[in-house]
Amino acid sequence: MAGTSQKKLNLKLKVWRQKSNKDQGSFVEINAEGVSEDASFLEMLDQVNESLIKKGDDPIAFDHDCREGICGSCGFMINGNAHGPQKGTTVCQLHMRAFKDGDSIVLEPWRATAFPVIKDLMVNRSAFDRIISAGGFISVDTGNAPDANGLPVPKPDADEAFANATCIGCGACVASCKNASAMLFTSAKVSHLALLPQGQVEKTERVLRMVAQMDSEGFGSCTSTGACSAACPKEIKLTSIARMNRELLAATLNKKEAVEGDGV
Amino acid sequence: MAVASARSFLLTSIGKKYLMGLTGLIWAGFVFAHMAGNMLIFVGADAYNKYGHFLTSGYFIYVAEAVLVLSLLVHVGCAISLTIENRAARPTRYAVTPNGSKGVTLASMTMAFHGSIILVFIITHLITFKFGTYYETTVDGVVMRDLHRLMIEVFQNPTYVFWYVISLVLLGFHLSHGVGSIFQSLGLRNDRTAPTIQKASCLYGVVVAAGFLSQPIYVFFFAG
Ligand code: SF4
Ligand code: FES
């Protein structure tokens, strides 16, 4: 293939190995030899796993699915950086040309009380699912598809909503936050729906419920450090958190209690 | 209902951040005014004493003190509660600390540390000045406290000046991260205003620290 480099890398991996949530876990040194610069980071791990399996060892467990940066399955710490050294990149889209021959690379799972380790580099992120099911959706009637332009949305709002909708729920924000805060993730969903007309119906309930769920999952709070946004593969902005904060205040002030006879 | 929802709001992680922000705002305003008022040191002893006398006569001082003490208690209380929650949320550290664009800023990492030093400073500062030696003087026929004399005395002491310098540098650092975060926590930041807020926050920290520092340094080296 044109432009394919023939350079091969030999790397020293220091990988977090942990059999299960009950296990203590520790770093294990594993060599990765003859890695193509064109391989993605996960392909490099596939290669390492193949040789581990051949030797009769347990392969390194890590989450992955789409391998094209859209599903949010992959992610772990590479030398202390969530998703590795590049900005705006998921680990599946990171290429080995970002590393040099002879590099030692430390791989660690996301660390947060709310994200318990399942095995090796895999963590349980179902806390995120519970935050979304607390309110990160809109209710729509079934029936014919509505007219594309039936609901006008100002362009800047549509852009801003779209930028927030690109969050893939990978958890890098939690992993890189010193407080393991889920504010960037939660605020991305709150912002996405608060900016659109379709999101107005449940606007108040949504933010109240999602924040309550986020707190109860044991995530920390935001110290406006910005490490989350720097690590986010979708570059969700810190100002989304400011928006969520004002949405929460507005929701608290506007909240209406349902009374008997309201059909609730 | 209103009380219940206000209560549940203030108990969320975001609600506590609102409290931190509001009380921080009160203190950020206070330290600036305090620093500006103290600039009368450069005008002269009488001006300085008259200003102190003016502030402490009347009921204003009691209201101001009550607001400040209450704000400080809330600020420190929320800080402790949030720090405990945050440590619990992230008990394990990573083997490698990231550097570069994915790293964190030093000021935000160390807020609790300088916050604690500043708290100790506030207490020692009150003991030294507010509850310190009471000298008297007469300006324009009015008998008043000679705070200027006490201040000159205190700032002859190198240990005290050193402690003062350290604390105020940390205060500047605390403000440089804190003032910007107030806007973030209170939801008053957007993409347009964020860069300006960041710069203004740094400037605020530098101005307050530099203003305060000019005073003991001037007294130590030039007056006395
Ligand atoms: S906000 Fe960014 S880092 Fe956090 S889950 Fe969404 S995509 Fe991942
Ligand atoms: S595997 Fe889907 S985003 Fe990386």
Describe the structure.
The complex is a heterodimer of chains A (264) and B (224). Helix content of chain A is 32%, strand content 13%. Chain A is α+β, with helices and mostly antiparallel strands and 264 residues long. Chain A folds into two domains: 9-118, Ubiquitin-like (UB roll) (Roll), CATH 3.10.20.30; 125-140 and 152-263, Alpha-helical ferredoxin (Fumarate Reductase Iron-sulfur Protein, Chain B, domain 2). The longest helix of chain A has 16 residues, at 239-254. Chain B has 224 residues and is mainly alpha-helical. In chain B, 74% of the residues lie in helices and 4% in strands. Chain B is globular, with a radius of gyration of 20 Å. Classes of the chains: A alpha+beta (264), B mainly alpha (224). At the A-B interface, β4, α6, α7 and α8 of A face α1, α2, α4 and α8 of B. The structure holds iron/sulfur cluster and FE2/S2 (inorganic) cluster (FES). FE2/S2 (inorganic) cluster binds next to loops of chain A.
Layout of secondary structure:
The complex is a heterodimer of chains A (264) and B (224).
Chain A: E1 8-17, E2 26-36, H1 41-54, E3 77-78, E4 81-82, E5 104-108, E6 117-119, E7 122-123, H2 126-133, H3 155-165, H4 172-176, H5 183-194, H6 203-216, H7 227-231, H8 239-254
Parallel strand pairs in A: 1-5
Antiparallel strand pairs in A: 1-2, 3-4, 3-5, 6-7
Helix pairs in contact in A: 2-6, 3-5, 5-6, 5-8, 6-8
Chain B: H1 2-11, H2 13-38, H3 45-56, H4 60-89, H5 106-109, H6 111-130, E1 136-139, E2 142-145, H7 147-154, H8 158-185, H9 194-221
Antiparallel strand pairs in B: 1-2
Helix pairs in contact in B: 1-2, 2-4, 2-8, 2-9, 6-8, 8-9
FE2/S2 (inorganic) cluster (FES) is lined by residues 64-67, 69-74, 90, 92, 168 of chain A.
